[in-house]
Amino acid sequence: NDQVFEELRAHPEVVRETQGAWQMFLRVAETPEAAAEAVFSAVYDAAPNMQALFKTPRAVLSMRFLRGLNSIITSLHDPKSLKITTEALGFQHLDYEVTTAWVCLFRDALVDLIATELGNQCADVAWQGLRIALNYVGGALIYVRVHYASRLRILASSWAIANKQEVLNQSGEEEGESGHHGEHEAGGDTEAQKRKQYGDKVGAPGKEKQPPSSGKGSSNVNAADRNRGSNMEIPTTFPQMFRFNAAVMGFAERDWMFEVLDSFDAIVCNVSNSHRLQEECDVLSLRLSKCKGPIDLAEFKAVMLASLRSLVPKGWDSDHEVAWSWLWRNVERLLSEQTGKPMRQERALTRKFSEMEGMDLNDFRQQVYARFFELAPPGQDFFKQSTTRLHFVADKVAAMTLDIYKDPDSLVNELSACGLRHVGYGIPAELCGPFVCAYAGVFKKYTGDEDASEAFEWSLSLISRIISRVINEGSTLVMRAINANSSKHLYKAVACAPRSKRASWVLSITVGSQSISPLMWAIETGSLDAAGAIIKDLLTIRADRDRYYYGVDALFERHPDIVKRLCMDAPVLLPTLLDGLIWRSRLTENGKRRVVYFCKHLIVNQDEELAKAIEWLTQNQDPKMICHPVISYVIDLVWTRVAARAFLYRKTWLLLTAMVFMFSQAILNSGLHTKETHNPIVRGLIFVFRLFIYAVSWPSLASVHIKRGRFDIITKNYVQVYCVKVPKHLFEFNSMISLLLCAILAVMLGLCPIFHCLGKPEPDGDMSLFTERCADGDRHLQVYSFFSMCGMLCYWALLADLAVFSNRVCAFALIFGHVMSEVGLFLLSLCFALLAFASATAALKEEDEDFSTIHMGMRAFLQMFLGMASSEQYEHLTHFPVLFTVVVVFCFVTGVYMVNLLVAQLACAYSETFEDMIGWARLKRGSVCVASMESVGPRRWRRFVESLRLDEPCEFGEGDVGMPGAIQMTEPAGLNITTTDLIRRFGGSTWPSAPWPEDDTVTDNTEDRMDRLEKLVKKVMKKVVESSVGGGKRNTGSASGGGSSLFSSTAKTKSSNGSSDQNNSQQDE
């Protein structure tokens, strides 16, 4: 009877016979596992339509069937207890549409099974009692589902009021109605986020409902918040009111209460999902097992009801009291089933694992996978890794079964992340059940420990349920399209997304406390077609009458390092990203076209500092990509408005020290040593300038290298050179030259003649101040002058960066550096030729002193190559024919062949580099910009950002106000011809939760048209072949049949022609 749900009062004799038959059936089966397997098989085979509902592992579900039947039959003598048990069973089946036909199938399968096993050992009254009990339970399941829906509505509405949430609209217009084919987003957008995601023409859209959270939910509290009582504010939500009432009622020190509170939001939000409710209660039981002291669940009920009465004062009535009491009674029952078990199971499993540590488990692991592949053959298509990897996975799963007892919170988060990775791998949740059955069965057989096997099976089942749920919730249409690497499937997947949530569908899938980005997963797994489609979809501007929708803000907020990731993993998608940041009008005015660059996130990051996009792009060293209009504009903008001045200030000090060095070394002392008398003012200036270099310039250079070297050492930013670790900054050209200059100045300080001549007379005996003419000074002067020359060259090399002010000059300087490799190869080959010919002539033993030794021969050959040899030397060589021949060959090889080869190499290298010379110049300017921004003050940077007015909406046309975050300008109309509107505008409803109308420009692409054409051709060819075969049969079988196809008529014509030719030949005979 599914119309009422009352207590079942059966005749005592019926109860006694029914319970006796059940106990006899359990004895016949020998073990509970065998009885459970028999029951499950009977039900599973009798109802094929119900097989899809059995998602729990077979071993776990069969024992659950057996325990449920046993509790029902053993409670037949106690009507009250039987009703509570049946009501709990109905509560667990709320999410299943139980019908009368299914109840009859279930009942008949069980009765037939027991009758087959027992035969004539029991009276007919036992079968009658068993049918009565099963009919009672089946009717109760239907009744509970039909009549408890009102309780669920009461729970949802009152819980929303208690937490100050928007009450669900039962008309189904809310966005969380069905999740749109199971898509899970990161959470509701705030008003500010929505204003960033799409522009507002009329007004900002209303705030939308956030989906219920998972795991600990919105009731998360910090440990510090549990010290309640002193600084309590006025409670406005259920967690706050609960803590307040707990403190008032004297339960402030019940830590277990706040563990329940942390999970209570997830419990209430999933009350209609029995599997999820069971999972939440199982995890909660593990957390409660870590709490010290006695646990009285009735205390939580008292505080809960008191808090709800305070928060829902107007609508609270007896129905609310019944509904919440009913919810807590079911939760209390689920928690009571596990009371005391987790600690005992943890000890048993820990003991068994410690015993297995020294054992060889390879055979155990192999049996696990052999059994798994036997239960689920499709699993072999997913477990394709090496055996060692599979063994590692098996060990990791075993470790998780113990870790979930020790630290359930951490492992649940880890399992959520693991499940999301399985979503990316495309692993179906259906494989979790067979894996649990295989692992649990092999573990029990291998260990033989009942307690450890029970603990292992329970924890492994919980892990399987969590991962299965995450896979089912995370397996969205977008992830399936990414696994197929199909842009067409991806466009179809997001076509049903609400327009306000379209960006979040492809940027975030959140399950519990873990989140995965479909876009980043597509990039990491190499599904670049799908990743490109995601980027194009995000950066497509769509508009209705009320709002603009553009996903650039959502993209950079979710992935601030998207430019870096694309540079590293998918550089082919960089043009797609950058092209999506440009909007060009198809209309022109006075030869100009309106252009909008959405470059806010390339200039400013979320901390209002310089974004790292320029740094990442310059490090990528792609001269073509750096010339993209958006990047070129951003680099030039930052350079001209901010970085150029900071760079010039920094170079001013270097230019000053270079001028002082040049005056002290090359100008003031020019010809100084050729005069017998010297101007004391000049000598004083030389001393002051050199003292400035040694006391000011050199310490500043040394301090810079010490700081940068210390930073590289702390961050372990090394470059391995053979067995030596060198700080990475020394591999930069300027840093290398600067360090060399620092070393040169240190040597010059030790060799300076002025310091060596202090207080010493000159050669003529005079005592002159700051003189360089003394015995010690003359001894160091030559070496000092050499290092002075090297230092001067280093200063000019450091000043070469000033070419960055002009892209043309910088491009020329960079080309000069790029072709130097060819010159280096030429000099290497020249040295080889000099050494080869010099050693050959030294072995010749001619009487010419210029070629008598190797070093003299190399000098003579070098003079000839450089054209410095005199005609007399060549005339002298004519007296030695062999030597003269060698010299002629050398001159031809080096002066003709090698020089022309160098010219050809330089020409090719120049032509190759010339195409990208502006790109290389922009790369240099970008790197200088990044380096110079370190010296830009925050106030100046803030003024620059404010001057860009990035927070003001741009204009797409006269009176057409768009989105903020852009810089608008005009360009010549013929520079980038645009004939189509880059904004896709749609009419109809403007409701943010409505999906966009189907866009033929996206779905009906060339690939789709070719696919349809290919299918059409195949269809036509199939019909042609069938008609030709049919026509041939008709021609051979009967002359009267008429064919309608072209091929059949042709066959007839050929047949008639053949017969006429035969008749003509017979007449001729």
Your description of this structure?
It is a single chain. The protein has 1069 residues and is mainly α. It is built from 45 helices and twelve strands. The strands form five sheets. A three-stranded mixed β-sheet has the order 4-3-12, with no helix packed on it. A hairpin with a 2-residue loop joins strand 1 and strand 2. Helix 13 runs antiparallel to helix 14 (318-337). The chain is elongated. Mean pLDDT is 80; it is low at 166-231, 672-677 and 1033-1069.
Q: Distance N terminus to C terminus?
A: 98 Å
Q: Poorly predicted ranges (pLDDT <50, ≥5 residues)?
A: 166-231, 672-677, 1033-1069
Q: Report the helical percentage.
A: 55-70%
Taking the sheet with the most strands, its summary is:
3 strands, mixed
Mean pLDDT across all residues, rounded? 80
Q: How much of the polypeptide forms β-strand, as a percent range?
A: under 5%
Q: Rounded to an integer, what's the Rg over CA atoms?
A: 43 Å
So what's the overall shape? elongated
The beta-strand count equals 12
In DSSP terms, counting alpha (H) and pi (I) runs of 4 or more, how many helices? 45
The SS-based structural class is: mainly alpha
Neighbour order of strands in the largest sheet: 4-3-12
